[in-house]
Amino acid sequence: MFFKRLNPIARAEQYIAKGKYKKAMKLLGKTFVKYPNSLDLARLRFEYGKYIPFDELHHEAAVDYFNLQMRFDVSGEKIHGDFVKYMTTTQGRINLDDTTLSKLAVVFATHGFENNAIYIINSMMRKETRIESFVDALVAIINYLDEKGAYKKTQSYKNYLKWHYPDHEMTHYILGKTN
Predict the structure, then answer these.
(1) How many whole angstroms separate alpha carbon 136 and alpha carbon 121?
(2) ∠ at Cα 79 (69, 174), nearest 5°?
(3) Which residues of 149-179 are buried (b: 16+ CB within 10 A; e: fewer)?
(4) How far apart are CA 171 and CA 120, in angstroms?
(5) Distances from the Cα of 41 to the Cαs of 19, 25, 77, 164, in angstroms?
(6) Are 67 and 54 in contact (CB under 8 A)?
(7) What's the predicted TM-score (pTM) here?
(8) How confident is the model over 33-46, as a mean pLDDT?
(9) pLDDT in tens, 129-139
(10) How deeply is 144 buried, as exposed, middle or buried, from its count of CB atoms within 10 A (0-12, 13-18, 19+)?
(11) How many CB atoms lie within 10 A of CB 123?
């Protein structure tokens, strides 16, 4: 007698039903390696990650999911909603890489989600992040706050640019603008 082997998603669903969350996440992770452009698979991994919110597998799934969302131009509202879900699930213990956080901060600043953009940017400033993509996040929040007329709030971000990225073209542009 021959047995039909279930596809990986169906097997993962069975593992979840049995409470074997890590096993399900590992299976979906291996499957994601084969299909790295599958937003649906990334979403499923992200959703199942809520069962093991403090495990590294959940954070890896979140990084993959957020990066695919941004690459496929998913709406800022959807990305923000998923980020809030992630923060709630992990009780604020964000464990995403700096590049992903920088990109998320840009999305949030450009879509008017000021509080989360500022939260991410301020935490990255405290860590003294020095990656190139962080400049984009700083510029996005400065532009957002300038549009709102909150010029005093922009000063710490401008100073960070000035001291940490003095030779960057965007630093010269931002500091050259008059308020």
Answers:
(1) 11
(2) 95
(3) eeeebbeebbebbeebbeebeebeebeeeee
(4) 20
(5) 20, 11, 20, 38
(6) no
(7) 0.91
(8) 96
(9) 999 999 999 99
(10) buried
(11) 13
